[in-house]
Amino acid sequence: MSLADMNRREFVGSLAVGGLAAGTLLPMAAQAAWKPAGHVEVVVGNTPGSGEDITARMMQKVWQEASLVTTPTTIINKPGAGAALAWTYVNQHPNGGNYLTMASVLLLTNRINGLNQMRYTDLTALAILVGDEIVFTVYPGSTIKTGKDLIDRLKKDPASVPIATSGVGGQNSVALGLVAKGAGIDPTKLKVVGFTGAADAQTAVQGGHVEVLVSPASNTIGQIRAGALRAIGVASEGRLKGIMADLPPWREQGVDAVFTNWRGVFGPKNMPADAVAYWDGVLGKMVQQPGWLQQLDNAHLENFYHNAAQSKVFLAKQYAQVLSIMKTLGYAKVDD
Questions:
Q1: 215 in Cβ contact with 137 (< 8 Å)
Q2: How far is residue 214's CA from residue 28's CA, in Å, rounded to a whole number?
Q3: What is the rounded distance in angstroms from the CA atom of residue 31 to the CA atom of residue 50?
Q4: Is the pLDDT of residue 22 over 50?
Q5: Is 24 exposed, middle or buried, given 0-12, 13-18 or 19+ CB atoms closer than 10 A?
Q6: How many C-beta neighbours within 10 Å does residue 318 have?
Q7: Engineered SS bond to 255: which of 1, 40, 173, 182, CB 3.0-4.6 Å?
Q8: Which residues pair with 75 in a beta bridge?
Q9: CATH topology classification for 138-253
Q10: What's the sign of the alpha-carbon dihedral 44, 110, 301, 125?
Q11: Strand (E) positions, 79-210?
Q12: How far apart are CA 328 and CA 184, in angstroms?
């Protein structure tokens, strides 16, 4: 065998060995899916005990109990600027998947009403998790017994019934506006009494100073159970569970108005696709855990799960709906 033939055989052999090595390593690399390598922070833009905070801690509990996330996780509260401080902080860590944040309908309304400039597209939607449905209640002595009673009164005179909401220009205002519009009533003519907090609004209604309260179910369930408030309607797609199972949604009372006060989990803007896939998988498994479902029942929340792709579609649709009604109500400070 000539020296040239020997060199040729060695060259071909080296290619074969290199190709085998490459063929071995590449599939291994492709199979090495991303997962958090270190500490995970879930940043909440509200104070401890708020709806988003409660949801984050429910989520963390199931991660630990079901071993869905094996790295340490911490809930961090960064309230301020309508939750924009928390969202901005998460966006300062765009290249990894270890920073998450919570959001609700306020992610949409806070931009529209000018409270902050954050768009829902400035975060990466990972999942819409729960619905805290918006319930309409009256004080026990009210002559309004049903949702139809309320609509009949408002049709005769939209300003005849004082209606309490907390957080004017937020989710409660949107739900009220959609109900009025769905019933053929001009929502701008309603007599709305705004309160800075849910507790103050509840106190005013329970005392008979204001007749109707529009508020999430989790805020009013205790008063409804105690008989201090009477539920007359809910802006949900279907019937709720538990103590409000007999409460007909607005659609069952002839008013085409559905609006869910959701809470979800988001990542920073332009979150890497492999990190999105990881959290999409974790959250999809989480919502099937018995521990998660039990926590929903305990907190009087509805399962409203949308995965990452579904959340993106849902948010675009709801943003258009919210923008439209807030323009009608005169709360919108933006056009897009």
A1: yes
A2: 55
A3: 40
A4: no
A5: exposed
A6: 18
A7: 182
A8: 42
A9: D-Maltodextrin-Binding Protein; domain 2 (3.40.190)
A10: negative
A11: 99-104, 123-131, 134-138, 162-166, 191-195
A12: 13
pLDDT digit string, tens, across residues 28-71 = 344 468 999 889 999 999 999 999 999 999 999 999 999 999 99
Residue 261 belongs to what H/E stretch? Answer: none
| Among 203, 207, 177, 206, residue whose Cα is nearest residue 192 | 177
Let me know: does 329 contact 188? Beta carbons within 8 Å: yes
**C-alpha–C-alpha distance, residues 169 and 172, integer Å:** 8
Would you say residue 179 has pLDDT above 90? yes
Answer whether CATH 3.40.190.150 is correct for domain 40-132+261-329.
Answer: yes
Q: What is the C-alpha to C-alpha distance for residues 310 and 72, in angstroms, rounded to an integer?
A: 28
Say whether 166 sits in a helix, a strand or coil.
strand
Specify whether the backbone of 196 is left (phi greater than 0), alpha (psi in -120 to 50) or beta: alpha
Token digits for 267?
Answer: 């990542």
**How far apart (Å, rounded) are the C-alpha atoms in residues 309 and 289?**
21
Q: Is-contact 91 269, C-beta < 8 A?
A: yes
User: pTM for the full model?
Assistant: 0.86
Domain ranges of the chain: 40-132+261-329, 138-253
215/180 Cα distance (integer angstroms): 15
**Same topology between domain 40-132+261-329 and domain 138-253:** yes
What is the sign, positive or negative, of the torsion defined by CA atoms of 248, 293, 127, 94?
A: positive
Give the length of the chain: 336
**Looking at this protein, which amino acid is placed at residue 185?**
I
Give the pLDDT mean for 13-39: 55
Name 128's bridge partners.
264, 306
Res. 1 pLDDT band, cuts 50 70 90? very low
Which range has the top average pLDDT, 10-14, 74-78, 168-172, 193-197?
A: 74-78
Six-digit token string for 194: 């705004």
Tokens 């008979």 belong to 208
Asked if 125 contacts 261 with a C-beta cutoff of 8 angstroms, the reply is no
Is there a contact between 66 and 285 (Cβ–Cβ < 8 Å)?
Answer: yes
Token pair 């701008």 is found at 188
